[in-house]
Design brief:
InterPro entries: AA-Vitamin_Transporters, EamA_dom, EmrE-like. The chain is mostly helical. It has helices at residues 26-47, 53-74, 83-107, 113-120, 123-134, 142-159, 170-193, 201-223, 232-260, 262-266, 272-282, 291-306. α5 crosses α7 and α6 packs antiparallel against α12 (291-306).
Amino acid sequence: MSTTSVSPQASSAPARRPRRTRPVHWRIRFAFLSLIWGFSFLFIKVGTEGFAPFQVTLGRLVFGTAVLAAAMAVRRERLPRGVRTWGHLAVAGFFLNALPFSLFAYAELTIPSTLAGICNATSPLWGMVLSLVALSEDRPTRLRVAGLGIGFLGVLTVLGAWQGFHGVDAGGTAMALLASLSYPVGWIYVRRTLAGSSESHLALTGGQLLLATLQLAVVTPLFTSAPDGLPVVPLLAVVALGALGTGVAMLVQYGLVAEVGPTTAQMVTYFIPVVATAAGVAVLGERLTWSTPVGAAIVLVGAALTQARPKST
C-alpha cells in the first residue's frame, strides 16, 4: 500500500492532515462474512444445476485464488518458500478446501442447501472430539462434553431420527457431515505444523488455495467431461462462490481475527446456517419443516458450549 508525502515546495502552505481511510466497523464486516458464507450453499446448489460438482469446486478455487493473488500483488507479498512448508500447505489445502468443497458440491445434488448449511455448523462439534485426541493441552470440561451431546442431539432432530430419517438422503447427508469433519482435521494439522511459521497468513493462505486448485485441476478432467455450454446463472453462481465466498471471505476473516481475536471471529459459524436456511427457503423455495430450525438451534447451542473455556482465576 503506497503512502503520499508532502513535497518541500509545499512547506509554506497551510498544514493539512492526511486523510486516513477509516476501516469498516468490524460488526459490519462480521455481518458481511456471515452473509457471503451463508449464501455459499445457495451458490453451490445453483452451480451444480449447470456444472458437475468437481467443476463447481474447481471454478470456486480458481476465482478464490485469483482474489488472493491480487491481494498479495497489492501488498507486494511473495508465496511461501521451503519444500516442507509447501508439503504442509498441500495437506492443508486438501482438508480445508479441495475435500470439503467437493463433498458439499456432491452432497447438494441430493440434499437441500439448508441442510448442507446446518451440517456445516457441526464443525465445532467434530473439532472438539478431534482436539481431545490430537491436542493434549485441550482438556475436556463438563460443559463442553454436555455441549457435544446437545449438538449431536440437534443433528438427530434436524434429520428427523424419530421418523427413521424419512425423506433424508443418507448419502448426501453423510457427505455434508464428512465435509464439516474435514475442516477441523485441517485446522488441527495446520496448528501442529504451521503455527510457528514466519510467513504471513495471506501468503500461507494463497499458497494453500493454489495447491488445492492444482489438486482439483488434476482430478476434475479424470471424473468429468467438458460442459456442453456455459449457462449464465450457474456460471455467475460459481464466480460469486469463488470470488466472494472464498477469496474475499478469507481476507475479511483474517482482518476480523487480527482486530477482534479468533474467538469473536469464529462466532460467524453460528450465523451461517441461519443465513443458509433463509436463503434456501426464500430464493430456492426449499421446504422447511419445524424440525429443521429447532434442530439447527440445538446444534448451535451445543457448538457454542463446546467452545467454552474455563475462566482463568
